[in-house]
Amino acid sequence: MTAARDTWKRPPFISNPVVRWTVYIVAIVYFGWVAATMPIDWQRVIDGFGRAGLIFGGAFPPSFERSGLLIDGFLESLKIAILATAGGVLLSIPIAFMAARNVAPLPIYYLGRFIIIVARSFHPVIVAIIFVKAVGFGPFAGVLTLIVYSIGFVAKMLAERIEEIDFGQVEAMRAAGVPYLSTVFYAIFPQIMPRQIGLTIYQLDSNLRASAVVGIVGAGGIGATLANAFGRYDYDFALAITIVIVAVILLSEGISGQIRKRVA
Questions:
Q1: What are the b/e assignments for 51-63, b being 16+ CB within 10 Å?
Q2: Model's pTM, two decimal places?
Q3: What is the CA radius of gyration of the chain?
Q4: Helix pair 139-150, 124-135: axis angle to 10 deg
Q5: Which domains does the chain have, with CATH numbers?
Q6: What does residue 121 show for φ and ψ, rounded to 5 degrees?
Q7: Long-range contact list for 117-123, CB < 8 A, 24+ apart?
Q8: Helix (H, G, I), strand (E, B), or coil: what is residue 134?
Q9: What is 11-68 written as a DSSP string?
Q10: How far apart are CA 104 and CA 116, in angstroms?
Q11: What does the pLDDT read at residue 25?
Q12: Which helix (H) or strand (E) holds 182?
C-alpha cells in the first residue's frame, strides 16, 4: 500500500472564510445593484443596432478618393505628436528630478509630485477642450494638450527610475565635493538614460494615437478630419481614415518595439 502524495494547495486570497465569503457576497450584491440601477433605455439600444447597420453599410467599401485631405490631416497629427513629445519630455526631466525623493528636498519633492498629479488628473480630451477654449481651434491646442499628457506619464516614470538608481555613485561624487549639476550629469543621467530613451519612444507612439482623439474636439490633426467626415455622413471616407490610423499605429508600434529592444 502506497502512501498518498502530499500536494500543495494555493492558499486563498483572504484566509478567513467568513470574511472571504462576506466580500464575495457584498461584491455580487454591489454589481447586481449597479446593473439594475443603470439608466439604460433598451428600446434605444435595440434601435441602435439598426443605425449601426446603416453606418457600417455606408462605410463599405472605404473611399480613398480624397487622399490629399487624409494625408494632410495625418501629417498634421504627426507634427503635433513630434512637437508635443519633444516639449513634454524636455519639461518632464526637471519635474522628474523635483519629484524624486532621494535627490530633492521635501518641499521641492511635494511640488514636483503635485505637478505630476495635476498633469495626470484629467483625460487628454478634457485638457484639449480647455486649450481649445483658451487658444482656439487648431493644432496648437493639440500640442499643448499632449505636452501636459506627456508630462503626466514621462515625469512620473522617470521620477520612479531616479528613486531606484544605485545611490553609491552619487554619494561618492558628493563626498569628493563635486557640484550638484556635475553629479546629476555624471552619476544620475548615465543610470536613467536607457529608461529615458525608452519612455520617449513610447510617448511618441502614444501621442500619435492621442492626437487622433483630441482632434475630434477641435485640437487639429487627423481626428478633426475624422470628426468632419462623420459630421457629413461620409462613412466610407471615415472608414478610410480609420484604416490609415490603424496602419500607422501598427507601423509605429513595430518600429518603436525594435528600437526599445536595441536600447534595452
A1: eeeeeeeebeeeb
A2: 0.76
A3: 25
A4: 140
A5: 72-263 (1.10.3720.10)
A6: -75, -25
A7: 119/148, 119/149, 119/151, 119/152, 119/155, 120/152, 120/153, 120/156
A8: helix
A9: PPSSS-HHHHHHHHHHHHHHHHHHHHHS---HHHHHHHHHHHHHHHHHHPSP--TTHH
A10: 15
A11: 93
A12: helix 180-183
Nearest C-alpha neighbor of 123 from the set 139, 145, 138, 140: 145
Longest dimension (CA), the chain: 85
Give the CA distances from residue 120 to residues 116, 128, 148, 157, in Å, rounded to whole numbers and listed in that order: 6, 14, 8, 12
What is the CB neighbour count within 10 angstroms for residue 213? 18
Distance CA(96)–CA(193), nearest Å, equals 13
Question: What phi and psi, each to the nearest 5 degrees, are found at residue 199?
Answer: -65, -40
Take residue 13 and report the three cell numbers written for it.
486570497
For cell 457600417, name the residue: 56
218 backbone φψ class: left, alpha, beta (φ>0; ψ -120 to 50)? left
CA dist 68 and 83 (Å) reads 23
- pLDDT, tens digit (0-9, with 9 covering 90-100), for 67-88: 777 888 888 888 888 898 999 9
Grade residue 91 by pLDDT with cuts at 50, 70 and 90: very high
Distance (Å, whole) CA 70 – CA 66? 7
C-alpha cell at 6: 502530499
